[in-house]
Amino acid sequence: MLAYVIRRVFAGVIMLIVMSIVTFALFFASPIDQESFICGKNCSAAQKKETAAAMGYDDSFINQWSDFAKGVVAGRDFPDDPKLRETAPQTIVRCEAPCLGYSRERGDTVTNLIKDTFPVSFSLAVAAFVLWMAGGILFGVLAALKKGMLIDRGVVGLSLIGFAFPTFFVGLLLYKFVAIQWGLTEIPRYTSIAEGGIGGWLSGLTLPAITLCLFFMAAYVRMTRSYVIESFQEDYVRTARAKGLPERTVTFKHALRAALTPIVTMAGLDFAGLMGGAIITESVFNYPGMGKLAVLASTDFDLPTTVGLVILLAGFVIAANIVVDLLYAVIDPRVRLG
Questions:
Q1: Most buried of 92, 156, 233, 277, CB within 10 angstroms?
Q2: CB neighbourhood size of 28 (10 A)
Q3: Do 30 and 46 lie in a common domain?
Q4: What 3-state DSSP class applies to 63?
């Protein structure tokens, strides 16, 4: 098992390095007007040139990526240009490792910006993940057990309706009626555990988490139902029933365990995607998460923040793949031999 873990982690590190190179190539080596992304919309030509030198954007692509990689490991100073450090030492900003760059637009390091917004996106992703996994698997198994019956048709029909509604529509609906018009909940506002305790933290996440989970839950209900029904047709399930095992044991220990493999794959990737920020949901509820930060960075031509967020999201996806592979090895030991 240890050798399998080492192989997967090593492959993940290589993938992350390749992903960072690809990201830099898209933003810095592509034939676009990079000056527009460096200084902002209203900078003069002289300001753009000075900013490019300070941030190291006037250097070659290879050197830029090399400096970025070194910053992730050991940190770096801004301005990057040694001449500018001598003439204006007061402008030096120390970006501690892992350094993902410096945002001139916001006057702070990308790492600090992400530290401020990460708890919001993480809280929202975890709350939505727990809801959609619990609801999706529960109702999916229920629909599979009642295949062809009214309960099955009702669950599948409701999941189709939930899947059809866009996230922004559900979010606005809950915000307007549940929070404002009916007053069933407080106006959604993110509150950290340190400020409002667990109760205040959960209260602020309720509507955004429900908004986010409904779309995913609808997909997981249908997926769980399909895989459980397929597992019921396998020989080992028939053998378990022939031995006289209780139906509960057959369902959860044999059929559901086999169905978990593709579900774990989707769950890991979906959760990793949310870790980069739920852009629509955070915008609807005005939550200061990484999704909202990504929108602002794109609007303001804040290239360092955009690059940092893209690479961070890639890291989440790669890490999720590693975790999924390790869970595969637990669910099905034969995977370790691959």
A1: 277
A2: 19
A3: yes
A4: helix
- Give residue-wise pLDDT tens across range 172-188: 999 999 999 898 888 88
Q: What would the DSSP string read from start to end of 310-322?
A: HHHHHHHHHHHHH
Question: Taken in order 180, 184, 190, 195, is the CA torsion positive or negative?
Answer: positive
Burial class (CB in 10 A: 0-12, 13-18, 19+), 72: buried
Q: How many domains does the chain have?
A: 2
**Phi first, then psi: what are they for 77, rounded to 5°?**
-110, 150
In the predicted model, is pLDDT for residue 2 greater than 80? no
In 10 A of CB 174, how many CB atoms? 22
What is the DSSP secondary-structure string of 152-194? HHHHHHHHHHHHHS-HHHHHHHIIIIIIIIS-SSPPP----HH
String of DSSP letters for 78-137: ES--HHHHHH-GGG-EEEPSSP--EETTTTEEHHHHHHHHHHHHHHHHHHHHHHHHHHHH
Which of residues 302 and 289 earns the better pLDDT score?
A: 289
Structure tokens at 196: 């409002």
* Cβ atoms within 10 Å of 286's Cβ, excluding its own: 12
d(CA 28, CA 67): 13
Residue 29, number of CB atoms within 10 A of its CB: 16
Q: How many CA atoms lie within 13 A of 22 on its CB side?
A: 9
Q: How far is CA 143 from CA 105, 135, 257, in A?
A: 52, 12, 17
Q: What is the dihedral of CA 82, 87, 90, 94, to 10 degrees?
A: 0
Q: Is the pTM of this model over 0.90?
A: no
Amino acid letter, residue 166 = P
Please identify which residue in the block is written with the tokens 């950290």.
192
> How confident is the model over 98-130, as pLDDT tens digits?
899 888 778 889 999 999 999 999 999 999 999
Domain that holds residue 160: 115-299
User: Looking at the domain assignment, is residue 314 inside a domain?
Assistant: no
pLDDT for residue 38? 60
Q: Give the CATH number for residue 153.
A: 1.10.3720.10
Rounded-to-integer distance, Cα 314 and Cα 60, Å: 24
